Amino acid sequence: MFRNRVNNNDEMSAKAFSFSRRLSKLRGGALYISILVSIILGVTLTFFILIANYNQRNVTAFLQASQLQYNLKSAFQAAQSAYFLQEHTTVWIKNPVNDDSMRINKLSWGAYLLICAETKNRHHYLSQSGLYGTYMSADTGLMVSENSRPLGLSGNVVFKAGCYIPKAGIKPAYIEGQSYNSNAENYKHFRPAPFQIPGVNAEFCKGLKQQLHKGDLFLDSSIVIIPEHCNQPFMQKTLVCEVLTGYLRNTRLSNNIRLMCDDIEIDSSAKLNNILIVCRKARFTKGFKGKVHVIASDSISMEENCEFFYPSSFVLFDEGKGAEGFKFIQFNAHCKFSGGVLALGENKTV
Question: Cα 248 vs. chain centroid, distance in angstroms?
Fold first, then answer.
């Protein structure tokens, strides 16, 4: 009887021990599961926080970049305003509302106005440059003041826009052995000439005279020899090369370069893009193609099949200091020009 009781106690103890082991395993498994769930939740929450932070940074960067775009537009509008003074150029202007700053450089470039704008904040930088001209009516092709003298024409001249001609009309003229070949379509574009041609803007004339002078020691960089290959950004200093006579051949010059010389000839092998040439005489050989700005005091001429891309400009400016004589801009046969052409003197537009 006693032995049976002992056996029952042993069986109960074994069962209690087995139950406690199972309970401890169950508690350990639950702990492992809770730790695993906590890790998964932590990783998930961290992932969401990183995504939110990344999105916030992207939104902030986008807004800052968009603001810089607006700053550039404001800079171009400010540069064309009458309130923008010369002392404001090349100076960083800080926006009092935020940390943005912008800098404007404004100068004359041939017959156009060159505006370079820069803007920056703590993390971004943008820059842009552009050439601006004066708006003119699209229906005006030629304007001559009423001087009671006929207008001389030579060659195969075809007018495709309004031409303001004196009452004396036109007459054939012989230039380089060529007479005028009358075209009946030209007469439908003729209109009465005004007694006085509208004056040229005083600021434009001032900028034109500044381009005739030597480079600025602080704003320009002087070079002695014309480089064969050079691309000078407009955001940097202007490269100014002064030579007595020049002959551009197998050269590739772009943007912020100003050549100053007496006589210059540009070969068709030269690749010019927006450079400025200030000279007495300029001549382009047969087949030249490029984008160029020329200011000459005597003449600008070209051979056949030349093409000048927009926005090129030819300016014939007579300061009245040189020898008297016939000064001209000559377009030869099969030549195309897209841009601005202007001839004027110190006291009057010619």
Answer: 24
Question: How far is it, in rounded angstroms, from Cα 242 to Cα 263?
Answer: 11
> Residue 247, Cβ neighbours under 10 Å: how many?
16
Report which DSSP code applies to 262.
S
Measured CA to CA, the distance from residue 209 to residue 189 in angstroms comes to: 34
Let me know the angle formed at the C-alpha of 243 by 240 and 245, rounded to the nearest 5 degrees.
135
Closest CA relative to residue 296, chosen from 270, 328, 333: 328
Query: Which residues, 6 or more positions from 55, have their beta carbon under 8 angstroms from its beta carbon?
Result: none
DSSP code of residue 58: H
Return averaged pLDDT per consecutive 10 residues of the chain, 350 residues in all. 50 57 58 76 84 77 79 86 77 82 88 89 85 73 84 81 87 74 81 83 80 67 80 87 84 91 92 93 94 92 93 85 73 88 66
CB 152 within 8 A of CB 173: yes
Between the alpha carbon of residue 302 and those of residues 92, 144, 219, 284, 290, the distances in Å are 43, 24, 33, 4, 13
- Nearest-angstrom CA–CA distance, 109 and 207: 8
Q: What CA–CA distance (Å, rounded) separates 8 from 55?
A: 70
Global pTM reads 0.71
Question: Which of helix, strand or coil describes residue 42?
Answer: helix
DSSP string, 95-158: -SSSS-EEEEEEEEETTEEEEEEEEE-SS-EEEEEEEE-----TTEEEE----SSPEEE-BS--
Last residue in a domain, options 200, 218, 252: 200
Distance CA 175, CA 332 (A): 11
Are 177 and 207 within one domain? Answer: no
Q: How far apart are CA 222 and CA 237, in angstroms?
A: 10
In degrees and rounded to multiples of 5, residue 83 shows phi and psi of -85, -10
Task: For residues 350 and 216, state if they share a domain.
Answer: yes
- Conformational region of residue 109, where left means phi above 0, alpha means psi within -120 to 50, and beta covers everything else: beta
Domain that holds residue 169: 139-200
Domain boundary among 134, 152, 176: 134
Residue whose C-alpha is closest to residue 212's, from 108, 326, 290: 108
